Amino acid sequence: MTETINDLPQVMLEGAKAARAASRTMGTLSAEKRVEALEAIARHLEAAKDDILSENKKDLDAAEDNGLDAPMVDRLRLDDERLGGIIQGVRDVAALDDPVGDVLAEWERPNGLKMSRIRVPLGVIGVIYESRPNVTVDASVLCLKSGNAVMLRPGSDSFHTSRRLVECVRAGLKEAGLPEGAVFMVPTTDRAAVGHLLSGLEGNLDVIVPRGGRSLVERVSQEARVPVIGHLEGICHVYVDKGADLEKAKAIVVNAKLRRTGVCGAAETILIDKARADELVPEIAGALIDAGCEVRGDETAQARHDGIVPATEEDWSTEYLAPIVSMRVVDGVRGAIDHISHYATGHTESILTEDEDTAEAFLREVDSAIIIHNASTQFADGGEFGMGAEIGISTGRIHARGPVGCEQLTTFKYVVRGDGQTRP
Amino acid sequence: MTETINDLPQVMLEGAKAARAASRTMGTLSAEKRVEALEAIARHLEAAKDDILSENKKDLDAAEDNGLDAPMVDRLRLDDERLGGIIQGVRDVAALDDPVGDVLAEWERPNGLKMSRIRVPLGVIGVIYESRPNVTVDASVLCLKSGNAVMLRPGSDSFHTSRRLVECVRAGLKEAGLPEGAVFMVPTTDRAAVGHLLSGLEGNLDVIVPRGGRSLVERVSQEARVPVIGHLEGICHVYVDKGADLEKAKAIVVNAKLRRTGVCGAAETILIDKARADELVPEIAGALIDAGCEVRGDETAQARHDGIVPATEEDWSTEYLAPIVSMRVVDGVRGAIDHISHYATGHTESILTEDEDTAEAFLREVDSAIIIHNASTQFADGGEFGMGAEIGISTGRIHARGPVGCEQLTTFKYVVRGDGQTRP
């Protein structure tokens, strides 16, 4: 479905300017006012439930006509329960600590200047995402809670649903006496809109959060004239050390790979310590295969278990997002760190061992956003971190690493209080 | 001067790979080891003083032949005293608190997972800068202190001096048993090298810090495939409120504009409260003019003092970096905030008033990196903030705002400690 808008550049620019103006208001509100707006949004979503579901039906019908595959249709589908979950999510975000205005540091200089570093919103955030209606609401309320304005570009398959959801969000803002321009949704499925977002809209957009497939994120990273917070791929590793507890290790590896295979925190490569490979390879590979997973191993692994099929060099760099895993035998924790430093994408890696010294070396030396000892990589999630909700996971090195929640959607400014100081 | 290198792309890529490898070592050293390296660097600089000055002489002679203007030659010139200052700067940075490994936050989840956020180095930092030899050393030691590796591209007029300085830095690293590859200087003045840095060198460069003229910074912002930390312009404002103390205000305005006119924290526009314009305009403009400054005012200002020449719309967006200032009469603090939100570049703004409520409104609502009450904008400097040294000032909104010191050259990772948890 494409609705063409003749003056799209103008519409986008006006939306961005309104978002910029609204962001100035949102960022200087009291925390109570932001909560009031989120509660009004939850009420408007509740009141419009039937309407939202009927718009969702339009999208689902079109998806069927377009031959969308089953997992994508499932992501798109809303029902009473899922919509209830989305609305509860709004209230959960409302209940989070307000991050804006926090004093992050305070100190005084010898000349009497009183310095402080204060948390402030990022400004206007662009979110480009897949056809998942829940993201429309999650991203809106996370941005609003942290005092930002947001420009949304949902996947085209969810256009009707998202448009109706955004109407509820804007109605809630209006009811709270706040500028509706704080949440703008691109009013067309025309892909040209993405280009306008990437161009930065004359300085009215501060950061872009891309979510979705590698091709989208690569395009955004290549073309964006504004900073990007996001991740390309999550090639997550689990290293099973000779000091591992076997039963824990089997349970964690199976969970890390198979709990959900389509999430970015799913494990893609299992590294096995050579010193205990004779036992660990058959046990771990066997548990994975029994659970329905294809295991692609290097020669050393293949030699230790019949069900393992051969891995190629490409496997070490592949994010399967499917019940397939690669397995390699490495020379202890040093070998694991070397493999990870070569192939990891900076997302999440886990070590399984009862040896504290080995674990600490891994935690210290591996440089990904999240490093885990004796637990599943699938904990790589804002909710599991206690952040309440997330807009995505960042594998970039600057500003935000790991789950991007309210706090990561803020920046800071310095406030300096003097009594007449001039600089010598 | 251009030294052409035939295989420049290869040389750059090898330098970047060596820097990446070195960064892994630098980031996991003890704080003591980093201090040891910086002290060795200071000793090597001391031992090579005569040699450095004779390389500097080569650059100065070439600068004369090339007709460089006096301020640029002055920036380029080293003498015994300046070199002593640079070496003292190395020891000052060595004495700073080590930022790496700080535990920024710790908490436990209901499932028993122990979460922590740990400060880690950014990785490999590219610095592109003007022909100022001190930056070669400052940038190197700030990056090393914070556990990073650095790739330097100094202005071509300082090529010989910078090359000799970098030899000392690398000799210090070697003496401390650390990889020399942690500091790489582009071995040619060929401008093509800048393009290679901007392309990101196959993921071996994590961030670029551009310093210098607007054209360089704009090129970097447009072309860089890696994140950029820096600033385009510092159009800094001083707003003189009706509640200002006149004597303080005159002293601060003159200092903010004229202490040094070539720094990014110098004031470029003075805003005067309409409610007291009859007194403030002649007093403030008079003080500036007496001190040798040209004042370009709007009509309201011109009508109140003879020496003010007319300003055009362009003046409000001009960074003079010279003894010229624009002056506009605005309608109180709201008028000042409106002007600033339109014309400021996000660097530093100051309000002069004895009225606390007015000051607090300004400090809260103005959204630049540094907001000051009753003091000069020329305090916008890492040293004045107590950071010890800075690699530049950032006007971007993400990662680092304001002075970029050691701490701003770091990022963080999450370390999660479990005892067998799988995600339900």
Automatic annotation (TrEMBL), chains A, B:
Belongs to the gamma-glutamyl phosphate reductase family. Residues 16-286 form the Aldehyde dehydrogenase domain. It comes from Parvularcula bermudensis (strain ATCC BAA-594 / HTCC2503 / KCTC 12087). One of its GO terms (molecular function) is glutamate-5-semialdehyde dehydrogenase activity. The lineage of its organism: Bacteria, Pseudomonadati, Pseudomonadota, Alphaproteobacteria, Parvularculales. Its EC number is 1.2.1.41. It catalyses: L-glutamate 5-semialdehyde + phosphate + NADP(+) = L-glutamyl 5-phosphate + NADPH + H(+). The gene is proA. This is Gamma-glutamyl phosphate reductase. Catalyzes the NADPH-dependent reduction of L-glutamate 5-phosphate into L-glutamate 5-semialdehyde and phosphate. The product spontaneously undergoes cyclization to form 1-pyrroline-5-carboxylate. It is an enzyme of class 1 (oxidoreductase). The keyword NADP applies. SUPFAM superfamilies: ALDH-like. One of its GO terms (biological process) is L-proline biosynthetic process. One of its GO terms (cellular component) is cytoplasm. Pathway: Amino-acid biosynthesis; L-proline biosynthesis; L-glutamate 5-semialdehyde from L-glutamate: step 2/2. Keywords: Amino-acid biosynthesis, Cytoplasm, NADP, Oxidoreductase, Proline biosynthesis.
